[in-house]
Structures are given as structure tokens and as C-alpha cells.
Specification:
single chain, alpha/beta, Rossmann fold, 2 domains, 14 helices, about 40% helix
């Protein structure tokens, strides 16, 4: 089986969507499935205002069609709602090809944090985008309930996994900082709500791993915090595993894969009781959820590191990949015969 995944989020971006798709492709390969990505790579692009490091592609219709033609997919999945996602959706609708989508980013909340755009208008646009899909995949039950309230339909569950060989407590290094060590990792941007963590009166040391547009502002405001910048792979694991508590202050993430990564390192999670943390942590003895984030941080110090690791071992990427496949198989069975020519916005490419 050949799956083409259309995504605006791709390397060199470092975020949960890119990590999820990379892990999914690697796992699907082990299940005998070929995955190809229709990404911004190779297309002209432009920077997104107020979002440094993020670029949106401007594909020429003919080149876009050629990429699909070369992939010869049995199924198409649209992972994001940017320019790549919009063009893939338009192509599928024009050709009568069923497709699946995934709701991975809370754009209504992200946009509202930057510009005075009512969330209901953005949700309406997203609802229209995903309504054409056979299945819209979501990562958690609580997100599914929220989207249902917003009028989304045809929702299916696609949870996430963690590489427990890479994210392992045995890889911890010694950090020469006063303990306890509270760490947060991810994009340093306003929607991540880092200020809620950094402003807390906590003992020991606070660490931030990652970069982003709010980094300079937060460094100037919180001079006692250790900003380590972007860490990846073994270096990231070494620092995560060295912490006492992982703090996840975001109120807008749809899942938060980094929570699983911290738990796999034997580090308990402190977070607000919102979508993502509610589904990952819930009532499991692997962290603390509280509207008082300071109290959650202090309670998480009492959690067993061994329990965190044991819990993370139940989240495999193979289970996640099989869940994804169960939805994709629905459209692979019903897709029309591959057309002899591909027409996209007036461009025709011989088949």
C-alpha cells in the first residue's frame, strides 16, 4: 500500500506534527506500507508574519500535480490546513478521490493569541475544510468531544506513541543546577503559555528547552530561568531525563507528544486539566493536573519515576500506526481508478 501525506509542517521545522509524521512513516514502513510526503520541499515559499521559522509553500499547479502523479498513491491523507493541505484537498475534490485529514493544531486559539480574529470564524473555516474528508482523525477523546460541539463530523481516533528506546531514563546526565529541576520543552511562542510556568514561585531551577519568537522577551523578563535553546535527539533526552518534573503549561495543544517523551524518561508531568494533559495523564499516577499550576508542580514531585516509565511503555507507535491505517484503509478501498491525467487549477499533466 502506498500513502501520500500532504503536510505544510515539515523539516527543518521542529514541532509535534513533524515528529509525529516522521515516527508514523518509520513505523508504517515496518508494517509494509510505503509513505511519501507532499511537503513544501521543492516549492517556492514565504514566511508567515508573527511566526518566525514557519514558511508556507506556493506550489505551481502543474508541479503540484506532477508530485501527486509520481507518488501514485493508493490513499491520500491531508495532515495540515495550510497551502499544501488546501491544494491537496482541491485536487482530491476535483478528481473525486476520497481522502482523510487530521486535526493537529488549534489554529483558532493560536490566531486569536496574535490577531483580533473571532475563534468562531476560524472554526467555521476549519469545519468546512475537514467536512469533505471521509474521516478527520483526532488524538484524544476530549478533543473529539470539543470538535463535535463545534459542529465537526466523521471524527476518528488516532492516538500518538513514543520511542521508548530513545526516551529512556538511563540516558540522563548530571545537571549542575539547584534541585528540584522543573523543565518545559517545545516551541517558545505565546500559544504555549510559558509565562504561566516561568512566573511561578518554585524551589530549585526552571529550564526551558526550545526556541521561538517569544524567546527574547521571556529571557529578558525571567533572568533566573535557564534557556538552553534547541536540543534534539540524544541531547534532548539527556536533559529531559535529568529533570524532576516536566511542566506542560499549554492550554491549546491537541495532544502534546512531549508529555509522553518526558514520561518515557521517568519524569512526571505537571499541567493544567485541559485537552491533552487530561487524556494523557488523567487520573493515572504519573503526574498532577491542577488549575493552580504551582500546586501541580509541587504535587508532581511526589510521583514515582518508575510509574511514569511503566505507563509510557504502553504507548507504542505501532498501535498508533495501526489506528491510522484502519482509517486510511476505508478510502483505499473506495478510491476511483487512477485518472489518466491530473488537472489542478487549470493544469493538465499526462498520466
Amino acid at each position: 500500500m502506498r500513502i501520500l501525506i500532504a503536510t505544510d509542517a515539515w523539516h527543518p521545522q521542529v514541532n509535534g506534527v513533524v515528529r509525529t509524521l516522521t515516527s508514523l512513516a518509520r513505523t508504517l514502513k515496518g508494517l509494509g506500507v510505503t509513505v511519501e510526503f507532499l511537503s513544501p520541499e521543492g516549492f517556492p515559499s514565504f514566511s508567515v508574519p508573527s511566526y518566525p521559522g514557519i514558511r508556507l509553500a506556493l506550489p505551481a499547479p502543474r508541479k503540484f500535480a506532477e508530485r501527486i502523479e509520481r507518488a501514485r498513491p493508493d490513499a491520500i491523507h491531508i495532515a495540515t490546513e495550510g497551502t499544501i493541505g488546501l491544494m491537496a484537498r482541491r485536487w482530491c475534490l476535483g478528481k473525486g478521490w476520497p481522502f482523510t485529514t487530521s486535526f493537529t493544531t488549534r489554529f483558532p486559539e493560536y490566531i486569536a493569541a496574535r490577531w483580533p480574529v473571532p475563534e468562531r470564524l476560524v472554526y467555521a473555516a476549519l469545519r468546512r475544510f475537514h467536512a469533505a474528508a471521509t474521516v478527520t482523525m483526532v488524538a484524544t477523546p476530549s478533543l473529539m468531544a470539543e470538535l463535535t460541539e463545534h459542529g465537526f463530523s466523521c471524527l476518528g481516533m488516532w492516538t500518538r506513541g513514543v520511542d521508548t528506546d530513545l526516551f529512556n531514563p538511563t540516558h540522563a546526565i548530571e545537571l549542575d543546577y539547584p534541585r528540584p529541576i522543573f523543565v518545559s520543552a517545545g516551541r517558545v511562542a505565546v500559544e504555549k503559555n510559558l509565562e504561566a510556568f516561568l512566573s511561578l514561585d518554585l524551589p530549585g531551577t526552571k529550564i526551558v528547552i526550545g526556541t521561538g519568537p517569544q524567546e527574547g522577551e521571556l529571557k529578558a523578563q525571567f533572568r533566573d530561568v535557564k534557556f538552553l535553546g534547541l536540543l534534539e535527539n540524544a541531547n534532548l533526552v539527556a536533559h529531559l531525563a535529568a529533570a524532576d518534573v516536566f511542566v506542560f503549561p499549554s492550554r491549546t495543544d491537541t495532544f502534546g507528544v512531549v508529555q509522553l517523551e518526558a514520561l518515557a524518561c521517568g519524569v512526571p508531568v505537571a499541567a493544567f486539566p485541559v485537552t491533552g494533559p487530561k487524556d494523557v495523564i488523567g487520573n493515572n499516577p504519573v503526574g498532577a493536573l491542577n488549575d493552580d499550576l504551582r500546586l501541580a508542580c509541587l504535587e508532581a514531585l511526589k510521583v514515582s519515576k518508575a510509574a511514569c516509565r511503566e505507563f509510557a511503555l504502553t504507548y507504542s507507535w505501532e498501535n498508533s500506526a495501526r489506528q491510522f491505517l484502519s482509517h486510511v484503509h476505508r478510502i483505499a478501498k473506495t478510491k476511483p481508478d487512477r485518472p489518466k491525467s491530473f488537472e489542478v487549477v487549470g493544469a493538465t499533466v499526462p498520466g
